[in-house]
What does this fold into?
Amino acid sequence: MFETSSSELGKAAVSGFGTAIGIAILAVAAMLILPLPFGGGAVAVGGIGWLVGGVVYRASDHKQNRALQWVGGLATFAGFLIVSTVDPFGATIGLIIGTYYAIQRLKPPRGVR
It folds into this structure.
């Protein structure tokens, strides 16, 4: 019930990384057009983590396990790498927040490994 097949894991990975990279590029463009004094990177990467967690959860047919947590965390990190070119400090704070959101969304219930 909680185990993902390789096709579900692949679909979730493509969806998660595609979402993270797409939103990160849009966030960088928005930060270059409308520069915020502080916190733009934190909000962007935090939002990326929240979105990636939801997208990976839906793409894996609502499954939750450790492999999907890795996918969510690594996809959020990919978004962080793009956003950190514009706001390194804010993106670092956002990485902590976004990774937490993505991992908690994909966390399996207690007792399930």
In short: The chain has a mean pLDDT of 92. The chain has one domain: 6-105.
